[in-house]
Design the sequence.
């Protein structure tokens, strides 16, 4: 019995010693070219994900001047508008989904992608402007109060992507395309003519007035361009960091001005509309995570 057990153990050790040598002598089966390509080609296909980050909004608001002028002081000669403008670069948190498709050709990756993001970047200004004097002693003058606001909310884009694989799992890319965004705003104006008369203490008498109030909300179309880096983090998932600049260009909005003339001061060519010049753009840095499908 012990002899049979010893013989069995010696047989097992003999097989274990011979097997590695036999395996070393066997030819290694080379992987086919298609198998190698399939292992490297993990960038073709669809991708669905989400991103969040920070958006720096550029809001520029210029209202050259709504006005009201007394009868004795014609506009453009002795009566002028009171310019009103403001700008700002508020920071806003931004978050939203993206969906795209990519094709890999060797070390280059080409794709299309769409995204949508929420943000809130708003600027406002309320100004009681210095009195506009029509006479040297300011016995006739105008008091102006103006308010404006402009806000960028959601934005979206449809873009092309083109990148280079610096490693099989890391992509450097550029992106550009068309952008869409909601921009809203408002403007209000109150202009009041005054005249001082009487002795020994002049009495301030209120004369003609001009008022304006309006708001708007538009979907603007512009362009966007940027760059980023994307890398595989685990099977089927890729993380990215991306910077983009988006510009909606310059445009104007118009708000009606209502003038009420009274005999004390009268009216000289009152303004009928206030024209607001706007220029909107933003910078965004996003961090995202996408799933390949």
Sequence:
């Amino acid at each position: 019995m012990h002899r049979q057990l010893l013989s069995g153990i010696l047989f097992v050790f003999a097989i274990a010693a011979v097997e590695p040598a036999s395996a070393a002598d066997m030819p290694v089966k080379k992987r086919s070219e298609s198998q190698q390509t399939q292992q490297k080609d993990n960038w073709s296909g669809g991708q669905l994900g989400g991103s969040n980050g920070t958006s720096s909004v550029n809001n520029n608001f210029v209202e050259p001047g709504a006005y009201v002028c007394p009868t004795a002081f014609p506009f453009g000669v002795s009566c002028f508008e009171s310019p009103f403008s403001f700008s700002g670069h508020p920071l806003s948190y931004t978050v939203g989904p993206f969906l795209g498709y990519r094709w890999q050709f060797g070390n280059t990756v080409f794709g299309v992608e769409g995204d949508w993001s929420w943000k809130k970047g708003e600027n406002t200004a309320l100004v009681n402007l210095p009195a506009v004097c029509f006479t040297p002693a300011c016995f006739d003058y105008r008091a102006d109060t103006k308010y404006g606001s402009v806000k960028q909310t959601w934005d979206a884009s449809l873009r092309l992507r083109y990148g280079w694989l610096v490693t099989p799992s890391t992509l450097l890319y550029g992106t550009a395309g068309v952008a869409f965004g909601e921009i809203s705003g408002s403007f209000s104006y109150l202009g009041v003519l005054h005249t001082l008369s009487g002795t020994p203490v002049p009495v301030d008498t209120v004369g003609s007035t001009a008022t304006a109030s309006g708001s708007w909300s538009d979907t603007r179309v512009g362009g966007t361009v940027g760059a980023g880096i994307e890398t595989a983090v685990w099977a089927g998932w890729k993380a990215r960091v991306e910077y983009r600049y988006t510009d909606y260009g310059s445009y104007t909005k118009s708000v009606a001005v209502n003038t009420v003339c009274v005999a004390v001061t009268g009216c000289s060519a009152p303004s009928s509309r206030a024209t607001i010049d706007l220029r909107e753009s933003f910078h965004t840095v996003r961090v995202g995570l996408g799933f390949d499908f």
